[in-house]
Amino acid sequence: MRHFLFGRTGLRVSELFLGGTPFFARGDGEARRNHRRLLDTYAEAGGNTIDTASAYGDSEEVLGELLHGDRDRWVLGTKFGLTRDPDDANAGGTHRRNLALSLDRSLRRLRTDRIDVLWVHLWDRHTPIEETMRALDDAVRAGKVLYTGISDSPAWVAARADALAEWRDRTPFAGIQVPYNVAARGVERDQLPMAGHLGLSAAGWRPPARGVLAGAGGGTPSERERAAARAVAEAAAETGAAPAQVAIAWTRARRGWVHPIIAASTPEVLKENLGAAGLELDAEVVARLDAAAEPEPGYLEAFTSDAGTSPGVVGRVGVVSRHGGAA
Questions:
Q1: What is the CATH number of the domain that holds 205?
Q2: Number of structural domains, the chain?
Q3: Which residues are catalytic?
Q4: DSSP code of residue 282
Q5: Does a structural domain hold residue 214?
Q6: In the chain, N or C terminus with fewer CB closer than 10 Å?
C-alpha cells in the first residue's frame, strides 16, 4: 500500500484508512480474536492509519488493547464533539471544556500519551470556531495532539478555521472527513474543491455506500444508488475486480488526496476491500462511473463557470489563465 503526506504536513498516511466502527463492541473471546485479525490484515497490507472516535462505543478501548506494545508504528486518529453523556449539557460540542475532558478520556482508553490526529467530529454551530481552534492549538502545544482535522463541516467553516490559524500562528487543520462514493457526490461542489485549494487531505467515509455499491447492503437503495451500483458492477465485470474494490478505487482515481475509510466486520471482507489499493481504473471506466450518478451542480458553480467567459466580466478581448484556458 502506498503512503502519502497528510495535508500540508510531513506525516505519512496510508492511502486507505482503517475505520474504527467494527471495534464498536468489546465482545467475547471470539470477538476479540476477530478484532486482532482485522488489525493484522490491515497491517499486512501495509496500512498504518486508524480512524476511530470517542462516540464509537468500545472502539477506543478495544484499539488501545490491540495497539498496546506496538503503538508507535500507527497513525492513530480519534474524534471528539459528539456527546459522552446525554444528561450532561456540556458533555458534547467543540468548546474548550468538552475538548479537554474528551481528549483525556480518549488518551486513557487508547492507552497512549498523544493522539496523532484529533478530528472535530461534527461542526458545532453553538461554539465559535475561534474557541475550538485555540483549544486544539493548546492541546498540540501541550503534546497531547500532533495534528488536527475536521469532519462533516461546511466548507466555509474549515476555510475560516484555516485563515484564523494562519493569521494567529496556530495549528491549522490538515484534513477533512466527508461522505464520498460514486452515488454520494455532493461534496464535489464545495468541500473537496476547498480542500484541494487549501492543500488538505480528505478522508472519505462510506465508500461502498452502506454496501450497496458492493452488491450487498440493507434497506431500500435510491434510484441514484441503484444506477451507481449497476455501473460499478459492470466495471467490476470488465476489470475482473470485486465491486467493492471498484467503488473504493474510484474515490482514489477522482482525487489522489482522498483517502477512503475502510470498515469491514470480517478479515475476509477487509482483505477484499484492501485490494482496491492496487487497482488502477482506466480513464474510460472512471468516466462511465462518473456519468452513472453525476452530481447536480449548484447555481454558483454554473453561474461562475458561465461568468468566466462572459464579456460582461472579462471584456470582449478575453483573458487567458496561466494554465492555458480561458479565465
A1: 3.20.20.100
A2: 1
A3: 56
A4: -
A5: yes
A6: C
